């Protein structure tokens, strides 16, 4: 009698079941890591583009963020510095409640929101955007702070954070430690680390970051933004 070698149906089903369980456990983590890497890369690209814009503005027009005197779209405004070099395709002024896009993205009604050709969005309070030479912590965010969304209107439209978060409303990007008490060394997930330190274990890198406009630079503002640029 000839003996046939091969797998039984039960063995095949068991193997497929094991593969399915392993895939269900690992794919979400892989997708999360991929999305996080994409957001980090996009944020670095945006910072580079805005810094190139102000560099060209200085070279051609002798104007940088310290020279900003206008809060609208006129010359010597943040809008003009960026629009000359980055191609703003749409401008949403504050107070336009008929357009819900800015509010859907979590931006304050009083903010200006700029939509760029590459899909990036920048939102900022125009009343604070002038003479961008310093960062007044005492004024809860101070001048010249904005929030960039690396993928525009696409979700999740949430601010990246570590053990602290950025208030996107009236405080204009002020850092508030909502998960770590003042001076605490352990966050609300039980991770031990000095307050203010961002690391792989507590970083939640999503699609929005806070930035600071200062002189001839656009700098990462807040724990998560600095973590992406300096610690990765």
Look at the helices and sheets and give the structural class. alpha+beta
Mean pLDDT: 74
> Could you estimate the helical fraction of the residues in percent?
25-40%
Could you describe the largest sheet, including whether it forms a barrel?
6 strands, antiparallel
Largest beta sheet: what is the strand line-up? 1-2-3-4-7-8
Secondary-structure element string: HHEHEEEEEEEH
The gross shape turns out to be elongated
How many helices does DSSP assign? 4
Tell me the fraction of residues in β-strands, as a range: 15-25%
Structural write-up:
The chain has helices spanning 9-61, 78-86, 101-104, 223-230, and strands at 88-92, 112-116, 121-124, 145-149, 165-166, 175-176, 208-214, 217-221. By secondary structure, the protein is an alpha+beta fold. The N and C termini lie far apart (65 Å). Mean pLDDT is 74; it is low at 136-141 and 164-195.
């Amino acid at each position: 009698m000839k003996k046939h070698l091969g797998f039984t149906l039960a063995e095949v089903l068991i193997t497929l079941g094991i593969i399915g369980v392993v895939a269900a456990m690992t794919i979400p983590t892989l997708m999360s890591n991929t999305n996080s890497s994409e957001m980090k890369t996009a944020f670095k690209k945006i910072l580079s583009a805005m810094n190139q814009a102000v560099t060209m503005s200085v070279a051609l027009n002798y104007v940088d963020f310290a020279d900003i005197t206008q809060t609208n779209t006129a010359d010597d405004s943040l809008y003009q510095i960026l629009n000359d070099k980055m191609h703003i395709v749409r401008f949403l002024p504050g107070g336009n409640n008929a357009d819900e896009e800015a509010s859907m993205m979590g931006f304050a009604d009083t903010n200006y929101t700029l939509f760029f050709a590459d899909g990036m969005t920048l939102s900022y309070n125009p009343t604070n955007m002038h003479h961008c030479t310093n960062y007044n912590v005492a004024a809860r965010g101070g001048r010249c702070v904005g929030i960039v969304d690396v993928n525009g209107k696409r979700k999740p439209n949430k601010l990246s954070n570590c053990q602290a978060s950025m208030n996107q409303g009236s405080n204009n990007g002020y850092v508030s430690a909502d998960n770590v008490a003042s001076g605490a060394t352990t966050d609300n997930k039980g991770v031990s680390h000095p307050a203010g330190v961002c690391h792989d274990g507590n970083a939640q890198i999503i699609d929005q970051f806070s930035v600071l406009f200062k002189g001839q630079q656009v700098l990462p503002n807040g724990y998560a933004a600095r973590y992406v640029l300096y610690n990765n």
